[in-house]
Amino acid sequence: MEDILILFYENREFIFLILVSIFLGIEIISNVPAVLHTPLMSGANAIHGVVVIGSIIIMLQADPTNYYALILGFLAVILGTLNVVGGFVVTDRMLEMFKKKAR
């Protein structure tokens, strides 16, 4: 438990930045018109592709005994992959709406 408190104390600026980013992202996304959701999702796919690759690189360079870095890297890979796959599913469904129907 003491290790977690030390980790929190040493990284409190980064934790604060992440929390502010989460609230800012929620506020921005909630105000986007429905017409722009598909281009926004395409941009998020590109960004999360970079997140997935970066987190894999970080995990490969982390010390095997540094469990915090490995757990955070693993979570970043899983959540980034889920976002990329979800973005492709949403984009595919949106593009399906514009296809001409067979007679």
Automatic annotation (TrEMBL):
Gene Ontology cellular component list: plasma membrane
Cell compartments where the protein resides: Cell inner membrane
Primary location recorded for the protein, binned into one broad class: membrane
Catalytic activity: NAD(+) + NADPH + H(+)(in) = NADH + NADP(+) + H(+)(out)
Source species, domain of life: Bacteria
Molecular function terms from GO: NADP binding; proton-translocating NAD(P)+ transhydrogenase activity
Transmembrane segments: 14-36, 43-62, 68-91
Membrane topology: Multi-pass membrane protein
UniProt keyword list: Cell inner membrane, Cell membrane, Membrane, NAD, NADP, Translocase, Transmembrane, Transmembrane helix
EC number of the protein: 7.1.1.1
Record's function text: The transhydrogenation between NADH and NADP is coupled to respiration and ATP hydrolysis and functions as a proton pump across the membrane.
Protein's recorded name: proton-translocating NAD(P)(+) transhydrogenase
Organism: Algoriphagus hitonicola
